[in-house]
From TrEMBL:
<dbReference type="InterPro" id="IPR000719">
    <property type="entry name" value="Prot_kinase_dom"/>
</dbReference>
<keyword id="KW-0723">Serine/threonine-protein kinase</keyword>
<dbReference type="GO" id="GO:0004674">
    <property type="term" value="F:protein serine/threonine kinase activity"/>
</dbReference>
<dbReference type="GO" id="GO:0005737">
    <property type="term" value="C:cytoplasm"/>
</dbReference>
<comment type="subunit">
    <text>Monomer.</text>
</comment>
<protein>
    <submittedName>
        <fullName>SNF1-related protein kinase catalytic subunit alpha KIN11 (AKIN11) (AKIN alpha-1) (AKINalpha1 ) (SNF1-related kinase 1.2) (SnRK1.2)</fullName>
    </submittedName>
</protein>
<dbReference type="InterPro" id="IPR008271">
    <property type="entry name" value="Ser/Thr_kinase_AS"/>
</dbReference>
<keyword id="KW-0067">ATP-binding</keyword>
<keyword id="KW-0808">Transferase</keyword>
<dbReference type="GO" id="GO:0005524">
    <property type="term" value="F:ATP binding"/>
</dbReference>
<feature type="domain" description="Protein kinase">
    <location>
        <begin position="1"/>
        <end position="158"/>
    </location>
</feature>
<dbReference type="InterPro" id="IPR009060">
    <property type="entry name" value="UBA-like_sf"/>
</dbReference>
<dbReference type="InterPro" id="IPR011009">
    <property type="entry name" value="Kinase-like_dom_sf"/>
</dbReference>
<keyword id="KW-0418">Kinase</keyword>
<keyword id="KW-0547">Nucleotide-binding</keyword>
<dbReference type="Pfam" id="PF00069">
    <property type="entry name" value="Pkinase"/>
</dbReference>
<dbReference type="GO" id="GO:0035556">
    <property type="term" value="P:intracellular signal transduction"/>
</dbReference>
Amino acid sequence: MAMAQACRFLHQILAGVERVHQTNVVHRDMKPENLLLDERECIKIVDFGLSNTFQDGQLLQTACGSPCYAAPEMIAGNQYFPPMVDVWSCGVILFALVCGFLPFEDQNHSELYKKILNAEYEVPNFISKEVAGLIAGMLTTDPAARMTLEDIRKHVWYQQIPEASLKDREDDQLDEAILDQLDSYGFPREYAMKCLQNNKHNHVTTTCP
């Protein structure tokens, strides 16, 4: 995959993760299979079956998700700060985007867990030092030292292209077809417009195609 395209996808993935975290939800199963592309080739995060809510400062302990993408603190059975496990998984996704394979793979689960706990992975020589450094920052075993979303956005590799997570239309330009469809479902047009413009998360906005 072209580096600019991988970078664009990373912008959109992180924007989605950030929005999820702002609602005090952690996904806990971030992986390529749960990232869909719409007709504009924009990322949509799906499958929140393993997600959970959390309060500010709260630690969770349930280990879940796909082992190859799971953070070491989760693998170790430790309590963990929810947002940072999603950051680790995004680091694995970024590695897969630019390298074409996963950083942590082993048919023996014990060996796989050992690699994850020690962040043992090999960086191919065809990727740049900049993206390798970004990946290393996201795949830091100590969650307190791991890059945050803010740190990632400041990184030189992330900033190689203009911010790509913004909508390509103005906020006040709502899709008339969607509004008509919502109206046909029994959601009054004016109420639907207010919910969408105010970024409300309710039965109306989750019905939008």
